[in-house]
Structure formats: C-alpha cells, structure tokens
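Q: Sequence in, structure out?
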Amino acid sequence: MKIIFLGPPAVGKGTHAGKVAKGFGIPRISTGEMFREEAKAGTELGKKLNEYMEEGVLVPDEMVIEILRSRLGRDDCREGFILDGFPRTIEQAGALRNITATDLVVNMKASHETIIARISNRLTCRKCQAIYNTLFVKPKIEGVCDKCGGELYQREDQKPDIVKERLEVYERETAPLIDFYRDKGTLIDVSAEGDVEVVHKRITDAINEYIKGM
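A: Exactly. Output:
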C-alpha cells in the first residue's frame, strides 16, 4: 500500500502514520526525517539543505522532490510506504504523481481547540527531534528523551498564538489539496479526536474498509 497521511499540525500524523506503517511492514517517510538524513550524509544536496535549514527558510519544492524521489527508490519501499504530511500543495501532489502512484489518502481531522490543547503540551528532543506529549505520549523520565537521552523542550512555534496562525495557513494552503484527492475518490476522512488507541483503531478500520472496496 502507498498511503499519504494529511492533517494539521499536532493532529497526530507522525504517531499514527508510524503505527500503521509498522502494521503493514512498510516505511513511514516524513520530509523532516529525509532532510536530517540527507544533511547527516554530507552529500552536496545535504550541504545545500543545511544552508536552508540554518537560515530558517523553506526548502524549495525542487529539492524536496529530488530527495523524495531518491528515498522512494530504495528497496524498502517496494511493497509500499506511508508519506507523513507530504504533499502539502497541489503543485507537490502533481510532482509526486510523476514519481509514483498512491493508493489512499488518510485525512486526519480534529477541532482547533483539540489541536491547540495538544500542541501546547508537546515536547521535542533537542538532540534527535523525537516528539512527545504530556497528555498522550509521555517520556519514561520527565524531560528526557526515551530514544537518545536528549533534553525535551517546547518550541516557540508550539505556543497558542503561533499555533492559531499555523492552523490558518494549513487551512488556506491544504484545503485545495484535500479536495484534489477527494475528487479522485482516494481520500478518507478520519476523526483524530480521542486517545491514541481509539484513533488508531478508527484509522485501521477505515483503511481496511477501503482496501476491501479496491
């Protein structure tokens, strides 16, 4: 299966895309992880990528697509993959279609109130960028990353006022993309309200139901 997970910030895309990917035995691929991996490899592309990230500016679509094309060409993607939060625009969706076809788009939905509450309780590891939440995904030791032992902190862009702005941008830029996939009949809406296990079952049930109808 080749699946795209869409949804606003802090809706739980990473958590649930990872759980579904594990269930299907396919990789979860996020742009953030691709960028960090490429930069760490020290390639020419990685060096350019580092420059954009250090300057705090958006990575050009052309570079994102180049990295994605390389990642999807690896052996572990032969049986499928899950894209976490990509594409974000109609233009990116068109570029993705030139690389590979996709089977399904899972559109995770939650109220702005729920998202603001979740994101204000989000913590990020300074070292490996792993994400935790004091409400749902708590670290074993307070303030310490389970994966690498790094310090956990709250990013500036996770404060309520900034989150509201991020949600407005998401709704403005992503609504056309949601309609784009809905018109093609490959999008399913899933409520992300509730705890992790409830939402995970909701997602897997919806995916399995979709597969039956393929």
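The longest strand covers residues 104-109.
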